[in-house]
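Predict the assembly for these three chains.
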Amino acid sequence: MASVAPAISGPHQYLQAQTRWSRVEIAFWLATLLPFVVAPNYLVLASQVAITALFALSLDLILGYAGIVSLGHAAFFGFGAYTAGIISKYGWGEPLSGLLISGIAAGLLGYLMSFVIARFRHLALIMITLGFGFLLLEAANSASWLTGGADGLQGVRMWPLLGIFKFDLWGVTSYWYSLIVLFLLFLVSRRLIHSPFGLSLRGIRENIVRMRAIGAESRAHLQKVYTISAAMAGIAGAVLTQTTETVSLGVLDFQRSADLLVMLILGGAGRLYGGIVGAILYMVARDQFSGINPQYWYFPIGVLLIAVVLFLPNGILGGLAKITASERLQKWMRTLPPWLRGAS
Amino acid sequence: MIVSMFGVLFDGLAYGMLLFLLSVGLSVTLGMMNFVNLAHCTFGMIGGYVTVTLMNSMGWPFLATLPAAFLVAAAASVVFERTMFRRLYRSTDLDQCLLTIGLVFVSVASAAWLYGTIQQPVNLPSYLRGSYNVMGVTIGVYRLFLIGMSIVITVALVGALEYTRFGAQVRAAVDNQRMARGLGINVDGAFAVTFALGSGLAGLGGALAIDIVGLDPSFALAYLVYVLIVVSVGGLGSIAGSLVAAIVLGISDMAGKYYFPEIGSFLIYLVMLSLLMWRPVGLFGKR
Amino acid sequence: MRRTFVGAAVAVLLAATSANAQQTIKIGVVMSFSGQFADPGAQIDGGIKLYMKQHGDMVAGKKIEIIRKDSGGIAPDVAKRLSQEVIVREGATILAGYDLTPNALAAADVSAQAKTFMVNMNAATSVITTKSPYMARTSFTVWAVNESLGAWAYKSGVRKVYTLVSDFGPGWDGEAAFTKGFKDAGGEIIGSARYPVANLDFTAFIQRAKDANPDGIYIWVPGGPQPAAIGKAIAERGIDKSKVKVMGQGELTYEDALKSMGDAGLGLITAFHYDYNHQSAMNKAFVAAYNAEFKRNPDMFSAGGYDGMHLIYESLKKTNGSTDGDALIAAAKGMKWESPRGPMMIDPETRDVVQTVYIRRVEKVNGALVNVEFDKVENVKDPWKARQPK
């Protein structure tokens, strides 16, 4: 690493060096356009992968960067999903404003929750997030006059995007829409974690006591990032509602929170692309395995998870980073032409 | 009124005891090695299937299958511990989560493949069925049996932990693993035995639970949440904590359903949240 | 750019389907093959497989191919996506399966948009069939079964009923339907409770019902481990079923539940449209064939899958192999046949099922607990839809 990176003299230079786009990153985002050309029949799946990736990114902000493990993040996803659905049901089907409103609504809920969240650590924190998730699920089930209860919300109809693009059966509009939302919020997250605020979050994750000792306001920071993450999860939920025109209790399910955690760990928590890679891998693997055998696909997925832990600890990206950082590989890399090496 | 209250207390106690058996092992192993074993309920499921297989295919009597459920679940856990868990003691919590949830997925799929997705029937012997009527309170025989079993197990466990050399080693390891190692205690060995014991108890709990809550391949996931609630409310590494937490949750669940059925589904989570906010480390937890 | 792309996609798709239409008809079966609802999925699939084994995979000169997709539980977003994909990606021209209401509702959109014939083989909420003009149902509706049961309860002498239902949509429907049938006949509901969906220990609820002192208890329970738990709790609480009639929809006494309950199940009364113990030559043959194939008895899920395949086969014969949605649904409307469950028909108006609701009591026959039919209500249409403003 050190041999490639330029000399760093101060914190500003450090932050700037971090924000530079590497070739791998650019290639990655270009590759997200491939489904339009290579696999036009997979666009509906691709759109839901993008939504899940956004959801995973929101969890990564709090888990990977601030150390808040949550088993109830579907609460915000579902809150955003229901908000988007309910607005549309009562006559406002414009997608972009619906997205904004849902994001704000989920963010507000997150802000309220953050007062509780910031007080706890460890197992108590996990269980409190889980408990709130279940409470919200039960509340949505009881409030069937508003949410449609177990049958799901009926009558969600979206207007065409920007008044032009209808959400079609092939998922063309859906994928464009989900992908652009994902990319924009990814930019926001990228900016966020490479800012001084992002650095202090990592400080909190590593050692909260010491951060307090140097005068960093850990609680306010945690509340802020939790609110942002909740809003992002809410937007992800809203995109799901808008592109599928359905909402049901499934969006608030514990299973969704747990699956999300699995995807993030699989990809590598605490890495910007961890959630995205995890979501892609998990959902594509699930699609393929369950296509081969709809009954027992849990088996190969389970084996995949075990294999990743045993051979690539800290998730796929964590494991790969360790491999690429190894001396032998570095030596070999140096023999490659510069354009293949990537910038970082 | 008084009569119904006793009835609710009794039923809640029985339900709590079931939760206790399922979760006590996880509490101790989590407290001891900080190993996050989300596959704990898989051992409960193994125990359940052992009992069902022995009863329905080999005609064993119900009571005789219980020790088998304990032993098989314990043996299976040793295999997992030796081949996989052991490598991850020093890994992050997240990696441990991922590994054990992967195991749960594999076990769920395997159970579905081996036994089908059907609910497994278990027919209790006649002396465990039915109920007594004591001064207006209905006492289910099987529930009485559950409570009795759990009391025996708890006494045995507490006795073993408090009054044996092995128990002292385990307690030392829970309190301060590094110091215990420094004093020459074989923490890994003690942990392996504790782990097997805890998983065996889960297996026993799984076998005992079939009659009350049923058994199918989703058992390993469905009970995970309840077990985690008991462990967190009770406090890591504390047998007494798990016991009290399980009883409190069992009774409040039962009382909620009887007295306030409208909010029955909220109650167990409300109780958990308020207890955790009051004592974040759990009722009997130390850290 | 975008329009031309969609245009091209449509052209490719149509070309692909018309090429395929020459030889193969693909049916996309979307339901839960894994997770909590895996067993109903397996049984529906059993019905499908058995039908195809008995009747071959050639209809009107075309080969039938099933494409199975796992929605993994309550997930309308996934069910809708899989239904889309199975049409767009794999070229299916008929949709079938659908075990859960939210999933069926979401997939109905796809069926309506793509004008695809859809056979709902299980999901039992009344409103579902109104969501796509191309959908028919071969299972039952909660309203039809439970309203019949309510009316029957009063006729049989029950006057004061306590209701206990699962706290989610179908449970509320069951409660409302039974209450409607029972009250319209003149009965009185003296108390009601709803238990949490994930509830597993029912002693507290049963005790509460018993304390209200009714002469009938109505229970609505979905499948899974709950029926057995309820049956055991009723016996354990010492409720005398000769004095207090305990009634419910068929899931309460389905086969696995009775096996787990043992004698505790004796005397439970349920209303349903199918049971493997239904006495008819056709059903005997069906049960025997099912056992030979899958080593277990069929249940109402299997019947839904079996009759769903029958509906698809017969409709295809009528259209001479055309998979056009309009032609298929026209062929399905008003179709009548003799099923293992007895006579059944697809209502030409609502495309919903019309069939007999049987009233059964759990008895011991040759040492095994079975549901014995002792009364029936014939030609039951879904009453909920009949009451909706047209």
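Residues 28 and 273 of chain A are 10 Å apart (CA to CA). The interface with chain B takes residues 69, 116, 119-124, 126-128, 130-132, 134-135, 138-139, 141-142, 254, 258, 261-262, 265-266, 269, 295-299, 301-306, 308-310, 313-315 of chain A (CB under 8 Å).
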